[in-house]
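Mods, move this if it's the wrong board.
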Amino acid sequence: MTLSQKITKKWLLPFAFCLSMTFAFFPQSEASATGGIPGHAGYAYPTNIVTEDGRWDGTLYTNSTHRNVEVGYGAVQLYSKSTKRFVRMGDLRDISFRLCNASTKSCTSWKSYPEWTNMKANQKYYLDVRDRYSSYYATAGGEIYVTR
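Not the wrong board. Structure tokens:
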């Protein structure tokens, strides 16, 4: 056995032990485990809303203390479905929201103001957004807030 192999063998076990203890004493937080960014009052999940693309517009997680959900979003932009070109700026009346439970597949009713209280604890939800036009689709950036 060479000198470098002896040194490696001597220090490998203590290094592995110290590394495992680091994760034991500093576990991954719930927010980072679920993708949420911890904030003063809860968790924020960044989202990019695009209606009529067949995809969920966001994912969020509730827990035993954080069960209220609100969506904050920026300017709504409307695009032509046929040309994919920008048509005009939209407003709050142009889109509506609902939450769908990932495990039960049940959804809330559509609402124009995206706020829900007392959602089931320890659940994964999907955000679904629709617009009110047949010839346009809407986009907006935003965040999903899960609070107490």
